[in-house]
Amino acid sequence: MYKVGILGATGAVGREMMKILAERQFPISELRLFASSRSAGKVVEWNGRPVMIQEPSEENFRGLDIVLGAAESDIARLYAPEVVRAGAVFVDNSSAYRMDDDVPLVIPEVNPEDVKLHHGIIASANCSTIITVTAVNALNAISPIRSMVASTYQAVSGAGAGGPVELAEEVEALRTGKPVQPKVFSHQIAYNLIPQIGGEQYEGYTSEEMKMQNEGRKIMHLPDLRVTCTCVRVPVVRSHSISVTLRFDKPVSVREARHAIAAAPGCRLVDDLGNHEYPMPLDTSDQDLVYVGRIRPDLTDDNGLTLWCCGDQIRKGAATNTIQVAELLIEK
Ligand SMILES: NC(=O)C1=CN([C@@H]2O[C@H](COP(=O)(O)OP(=O)(O)OC[C@H]3O[C@@H](n4cnc5c(N)ncnc54)[C@H](OP(=O)(O)O)[C@@H]3O)[C@@H](O)[C@H]2O)C=CC1
Ligand SMILES: N[C@@H](CC(=O)OP(=O)(O)O)C(=O)O
Q1: Is 2-125+318-331 assigned to CATH 3.40.50.720?
Q2: Which are the catalytic amino acids?
Q3: 149: Cβ below 6 Å to ligand 1?
Q4: Tens of pLDDT along 252-306?
Q5: So which residues are the signal peptide here (predicted)?
Q6: Closest CA to 234 of 310, 180, 295, 307
Q7: Is the pLDDT of residue 25 over 70?
Q8: Percent helix, strand and coil across the chain, each rounded to 5?
Q9: Which residues 6+ apart lie within 8 Å of 149 measured at CB?
Q10: Which residue positions form the known binding site for NADP(+)?
Q11: Where do the structural domains in the chain lie, given as residue ranges?
């Protein structure tokens, strides 16, 4: 049995982690929940037991085996050293440490063996990257991927617990003729699309867009992989969708790709255009599989394939992936 903490337990991902720890029957003898001073002292129920929210500190981390990170990257950076000094392993869902050389970045279906390389911190990848790479890694096994063009359609809950609240408030304001006042997003998201997630990072690409290449390279051990990505916020409540075009070293047929996806851990093939069957966010929410469909030849390159994948970014894209990493850690 393990003593486990969640840093950021009151947020969208933290709350999902509590649910999934119980659902997967993670062997827990004690669960400690950490959040900001705004939440400290509140009592929530977990597995039929009351648990009081605490403020994070080295003292409060002491005695824990694992702390799951479900806070923003600045909070992760602030507390990771204290978690490690207190003797626990920090399995972090934020972007804080993902690209550090001594921090493994893990999707359990793709590179589980990398967990062993940790020195106290292990990172879980970006949500769109997890959903995409869980699918494309199965195709990379058929023929190495040279490059990828991806466009993401990211749900409002990807921006945290405040995202869906803002979407609902805007829909209501528009229905009743009141002014829309965006706070979480930089523009009105109701009945709109916003082609920016994250700040500008490189040559007009945003930080969110560069994660697909940089994290994808590290997880799949493909240091030369080239990715062009466009990330778009869409007025969907939950589950991210990604359109992906892959260019391989040699041609991969649609039939081979369908077989590989159908057999891939963590994936479900949903690909029957004639019967209107393809992955959609309403169908992928509140479960852990990445649905993959619309697999077809890339008409611009004989070595290319185009596909569409969709997955719950709060579950597989964040909470579940992080907990699966913690499961690998205790199996070791
Ligand atoms: N939402 C999603 O779909 C995904 C999110 N992520 C990543 O997961 C992390 C959490 O995101 P999300 O759950 O959406 O965010 P939320 O905004 O919903 O939750 C943030 C959490 O951090 C806590 N927190 C804020 N400030 C402090 C502080 N000073 N000390 C301690 N705790 C603090 C909050 O506590 P309080 O309630 O007290 O303010 C809350 O529990 C982020 O790194 C995000 O990038 C990754 C993939 C998907
Ligand atoms: N930025 C993503 C969610 C996220 O938090 O990503 P990351 O864990 O890489 O910061 C979104 O808004 O949908």
Answers
A1: yes
A2: 127, 240
A3: no
A4: 999 999 999 999 999 999 999 999 999 999 999 999 999 999 999 999 999 999 9
A5: none
A6: 310
A7: yes
A8: 35, 25, 40
A9: 227, 228, 229, 244, 245
A10: 10-13, 38-39, 157-158, 179, 313
A11: 2-125+318-331, 129-313
* Substitution candidate for ligand 1 out of 18, 43, 72, 77 with most atoms within 8 A of CB: 72
Q: 254-263 and 127-140 helices cross at what angle (nearest 10)?
A: 120
For the record, the structure tokens of 315 come out as 């579950």
C-alpha 160 to ligand 1 mean position (Å): 7
Tokens of 178: 């009141």
DSSP-derived 3-state class of residue 69: strand
Q: What is the pLDDT of residue 75?
A: 98
pTM of the entire predicted model: 0.97
Question: 149 and 226 in contact (C-beta within 8 Å)?
Answer: no
Query: Is pLDDT of 137 > 80?
Result: yes
Name the residue of 36, 185, 310 whose CB sits within 8 Å of the most ligand 1 atoms, as the mutation to test its pocket: 36
- Quick check: 332 pLDDT over 80? no
Tokens of 267: 């994936």
User: Using one digit for the tens of pLDDT, what is the confidence trace for 256-265?
Assistant: 999 999 999 9
Answer whether 105's CB lies under 8 Å from 98's CB: yes
| Closest ligand to Cα 8 | 1
Annotated binding site for phosphate: 98
Nearest ligand (C-alpha, residue 208)? 2
Q: Fold for domain 129-313?
A: Dihydrodipicolinate Reductase; domain 2 (3.30.360)
CA angle (134, 323, 51) in 5-degree steps: 150
User: Is the complex ipTM higher than 0.95?
Assistant: yes
Quick one: which atom of ligand 1 is closest to the CA of 76? 43
C-alpha to C-alpha distance for 327 and 329, rounded to whole angstroms: 5
Mean pLDDT of 36-45: 98
Residues paired with residue 33 on neighbouring β-strands, in sequence order: 6, 53
Express each pLDDT in 223-233 by its tens digit: 999 999 999 99
Continuous H helices in the chain: 12-23, 58-61, 73-85, 127-140, 162-175, 207-220, 254-263, 281-284, 320-331
